[in-house]
Every structure is written in C-alpha cells, then in structure tokens.
C-alpha cells in the first residue's frame, strides 16, 4: 500500500470536485424526494394488501 500515492490521488479528486449550483442541487433533491415518496407508497400498498388478506398481521 503506497500511502503517498493514495493521498496524492485523493487530493487530486478533491481539487476537481466543485460545489453544485442551486439549480443542480434542487434537481437532485427533487429526484431523491420523489424516490423516497415512491418507496413509501409502495410500502404502504404492500401493508394495505397484507391487512386485507385473511390472516393478516
């Protein structure tokens, strides 16, 4: 394990990274929020089906 080479590559990546613009950040947040809502709806639908079936939890 070459620590000096690893640190150099990490520093290079950090120098290339930049802060996203507000438009880019809001778009990513919107997509992530939509994913959370979709997973929640799917979970609720599974729960509702399990409650309607005979012998549900």
UniProtKB/TrEMBL annotation:
NCBIfam families referenced in this protein's UniProt entry, alphabetically: PRK09400.1-6, secE_euk_arch
Keyword Membrane assigned: yes
Protein name in UniProt: Protein translocase subunit SecE
InterPro entries, A to Z: Prot_translocase_SecE_dom_sf (IPR023391), Translocase_Sec61-g (IPR008158), Translocase_SecE/Sec61-g (IPR001901)
This protein's GO CC annotations: endomembrane system; plasma membrane
TM regions (residue ranges): 28-53
Superkingdom per UniProt: Archaea
Coiled-coil segments: none
Keywords (A to Z) from UniProt: Cell membrane, Membrane, Protein transport, Translocation, Transmembrane, Transmembrane helix, Transport
GO MF annotations, alphabetized: protein transmembrane transporter activity
Family named by the database record: Belongs to the SecE/SEC61-gamma family.
BP terms from Gene Ontology: intracellular protein transmembrane transport; protein secretion; protein targeting
Membrane topology: Single-pass membrane protein
Subunit relationships: Component of the Sec protein translocase complex. Heterotrimer consisting of SecY (alpha), SecG (beta) and SecE (gamma) subunits. The heterotrimers can form oligomers, although 1 heterotrimer is thought to be able to translocate proteins. Interacts with the ribosome. May interact with SecDF, and other proteins may be involved.
Role played: Essential subunit of the Sec protein translocation channel SecYEG. Clamps together the 2 halves of SecY. May contact the channel plug during translocation.
Keyword Nuclease: no
Compartments (UniProt record): Cell membrane; Endomembrane system
């Amino acid at each position: 394990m070459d620590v000096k080479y690893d640190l150099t590559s990490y520093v290079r990546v950090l120098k290339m990274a930049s802060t996203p613009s507000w438009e880019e950040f809001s778009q990513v947040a919107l997509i992530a929020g939509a994913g959370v809502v979709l997973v929640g709806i799917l979970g609720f639908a599974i729960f509702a089906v399990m409650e309607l079936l005979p012998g549900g939890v």
